[in-house]
Amino acid sequence: MKQRKGLGRGLGALLPEKEVEEKKEDGEKAVLSTDIALSAIETNPYQPRTHFDKESLQELADSIRTQGIIQPITVRELSAGKYQLISGERRLQASKLANLKNIPAYIRAADNQQMLEMALIENIQRENLNAIEIAQSYQRLMVDCNLNLEDLGDRVGKKRSTVNNYLRLLKLPKEVQEGLREKAISMGHARAILGLDDEGVMSKVFKKTVSDQLSVRKVEEWVRTLNQKEVEQKAPKKVSALRNEHLNLQENLASWFGTKVLIKSDAKSKGEIKIPFTSTEQLEEILNRLKK
C-alpha cells in the first residue's frame, strides 16, 4: 500500500469517504468496506477522547436506528475475525446503544503510530476535542511516536507555538484542567493562570474566575498584580536581612580595627568595604591588624 504523507492536510488524506478498496503494491486489497459484528471489534487504545456526551450519543443512536450508518467506521484486523477500531468511536458506541449487531467498516493496514495519528486527526476535525484532550493527545504523540515539537506540528498541521501552548495546559492543577475540559473557563483564562507559579494560587484564581465570571483580561490583570506583589514581598525581606547582617559585621570590624568601618551593598549582595584612617599611624595599625 502506498504510504500517504502529510497528516496535516486533513482527514481526507487518511480516510477517503468514497473509497471502497485500495490495492497494495503486490496487488492485494488493503481496504475493504464490509459489515463486521460489533462484538468482534475492540475499542481503540489510542483514542484521545475520554468523555462522550451521553445526550449527544443517544441522539446519534436514534439517528442510526432511522437512517443507518452513513459513514463506515475504520478498523484494522488483529487476527481472523478480530478487529481493532481505528476511528469512529462515537459511531461504534451509538450503534451499540441502537442495538445493532453489525456495522459497516473499512479495514485498513495500520501500525500503532498510524492508529494514534488517525484517531487524533479524526477527532480534532470531526468531534472538536476539548483543549485538555488535544494537549493529552499531542503529548502522547510525542512520547509514543518519538516526535519533537516541530515534527508534531507538521503532523497535525499546527504551528509549533500553537502545539506548545496546548502542551503547557498540562502543567495546570487537575481541577483547573477539569474546568477547562468542562468549559467553565476558556483557553485564554487557562493561559493567563499559567502565568502563576504556585498551584494553590492557580486554584484560587480559577475558582474566583468561575464564581465571578471574570473576563480573560481581568484574570490577566489579576495575575500580573499577584506576581508584582510576590516580587515586592520577597525583595524587602532579602534586603532587610542583608542590612542586619552587614550592620553586625560593621560593628565587629570597627571593634577589630579600632576605627569606623562602612559596608555598602545592593540587593544582589554586591558592594564594598571602606576603612577610613586619619593618620599614617592609624593606617599602619590597620595593616598590622590585616596581617594577623
Outline the structure in words.
The chain has helices at 54-67, 89-97, 112-126, 131-144, 149-156, 160-168, 174-181, 187-193, 199-212, 216-257, 280-291, and strands at 22-23, 29-37, 41-42, 73-79, 82-87, 102-107, 262-265, 271-274. By secondary structure, it is of the alpha/beta class. The chain has a domain at 1-129: Conserved hypothetical protein from pyrococcus furiosus pfu- 392566-001, ParB domain (Alpha-Beta Complex). The strands form 2 sheets. Strands 1-2-6-4-5-3 form a 6-stranded mixed β-sheet. It has a two-stranded antiparallel sheet with strand order 7-8. Strand 1 and strand 2 form a beta hairpin. The longest helix has 42 residues, at 216-257. The model is unreliable at 1-30 (pLDDT under 50).
Which class of secondary structure composition applies to the elements?
alpha/beta
Unreliable stretches (pLDDT < 50, length at least 5) are 1-30
**CATH architecture group name of one domain:** Alpha-Beta Complex
CATH topology of one domain: Conserved hypothetical protein from pyrococcus furiosus pfu- 392566-001, ParB domain
Largest sheet: 6 strands, mixed
Global morphology: elongated
Q: Classify the helix fraction into a percent range.
A: 40-55%
Number of helices: 11
Strand content: 5-15%
Average pLDDT taken over every residue? 78
**Distance between the ends:** 87 Å
Count of extended strands:
8
| Topology pattern, helix = H, strand = E | EEEHEEHEHHHHHHHHEEH
Arrangement of strands in the largest sheet: 1-2-6-4-5-3
CATH class placement of one domain:
Alpha Beta
* CA gyration radius, whole angstroms: 33 Å
